[in-house]
Design a protein that fits this description.
Blueprint (H helix, E strand, L loop, with lengths): L1 E4 L3 E7 L5 E8 L5 H16 L7 E5 L2 E2 L6 E3 L6 E3 L1 H9 L3 E5 H12 L7 E7 L3 E7 L2 E3 L35 H13 L6 H6 L9 H9 L3 H25 L3 E5 L7 H14 L10 E4 L6 H28 L17
Helix pairs in contact: 1-2, 3-9, 4-7, 6-7, 7-8
């Protein structure tokens, strides 16, 4: 099973070895309550386990996960502070569990089953409530010394800019994310801007009711303000990606997350800003910027694939130990909890 925990929703699914989703369920993220989120995960797992032979559970969490993939050190959108998520869930579901950052799980899925197939050096960003990111090098997620690599959304791009939920100001995700899109649109509706007339009608003048999918749909239907707002996000995104390309020189850049579903309305301006801002432009091969192929399924597909890989390593380790000691082999999923680096 794969679980994808975001700032507003929890997605759970049963996934087979080819990356095919067998069954899926969606629940709202219960505010910032750590225990309620844990209860939601357990409910999803136990519900699916009644119908399917669930072998292991992978969790993609929106936060900083330590290098051992056991503890969520911090989440800007949920009240996780050094939360031993793997141990807590494994104890309750009695299955092997692995935890990773949700952007890492998305990136791994896209590289194995989606837009990154056949590419060795892939940079992924996910645009949702904030910005998540990951680097995949030779089909392995790069996690850094403490497991916290890829938090590109919290690079400071505007000194003394908008406050971010992480506690700093001017973070990239305050200008190139779903939250940024909605914040700017709501401000224009509140100000009774003539440009925001159509968006105001959609929510009967209640700016707080305006959400990202409504803005995206309005842009797709030709609303000039919504198109402009998406283009603004795309320009910020392109400038930031050019900086990341200068640092990491990826062969391919993948844009995922809910906001990527706006397609060329976002990715077109992103590509233009990226090409204008890239260091060495005109004298280097530019990486292709592609929309993610797996959509909202990527997070839980990657989480399930990580769980499967870790379970296999655990099994191989037990086989080797049993051969050395002459003891009988343990059953594959006899104990909850496992380790691994995939």
């Amino acid at each position: 099973m794969g679980i994808d925990i975001g700032g507003t929703k929890v997605l759970g699914a049963v996934v087979d070895p080819t990356g095919t989703v067998v069954a899926v369920d969606r629940r709202p993220t219960e505010g910032h309550d750590v225990h309620k989120v844990e209860d939601t995960i357990v409910d999803l797992v136990t519900g699916f386990a009644r119908e399917y032979d669930v072998a292991a559970v992978g969790i993609g969490a929106a936060g900083f996960v330590d290098v051992s993939r056991t503890v969520v050190m911090f989440s800007p959108h949920l009240d996780w502070r050094r939360e031993p998520l793997r141990a807590r869930v494994a104890e309750r579901v009695r299955l092997p569990v692995v935890v990773d950052n949700d952007a890492n799980t998305m990136a791994l899925a896209e590289c194995r089953f989606g837009a990154g197939r056949g590419h060795r050096f892939v940079l992924c960003v996910t645009l949702g409530t904030g910005i998540g990111g990951a680097l995949v090098l030779d089909n392995r997620v790069y996690r850094g010394a403490n497991g916290m690599a890829g938090e590109f959304g919290h690079m400071q791009v505007v000194p003394d800019g908008h406050w971010c939920e992480c506690g700093n100001r001017g973070c990239w995700e305050q200008y190139a994310s779903g939250n940024a899109l909605v914040r700017d649109a709501r401000e224009l509706v509140r100000s009774s801007s003539p440009m925001a007339h159509h968006l105001g009608l959609l929510v009967h003048g209640d700016a707080n009711a305006l959400e990202g999918p409504q803005i995206t749909q309005a842009a797709q239907e030709g609303d000039p303000l919504s198109i402009e707002l998406l283009a603004d996000v795309g320009r910020w995104l392109g400038v930031g990606l050019a900086g990341l390309a200068a640092a990491f020189d990826p062969g391919r850049i993948i844009i995922g997350g809910g906001l990527s579903e706006s397609g060329d309305l976002l990715i077109g301006p992103t590509r233009q800003a990226f090409s204008r801002s890239l260091t060495g432009r005109g004298h280097r091969t530019e990486p292709v910027i592609a929309q993610a192929e797996l959509g909202p399924s990527a997070g839980f597909i990657g989480a399930a694939d990580m769980a499967r890989s870790a379970a296999r390593r655990s099994r191989r380790g037990r086989v080797r130990r049993s051969r050395r000691t002459g003891r009988p082999r343990r059953r594959l999923f006899e104990r909850p909890g496992l380790t691994g680096t995939d």
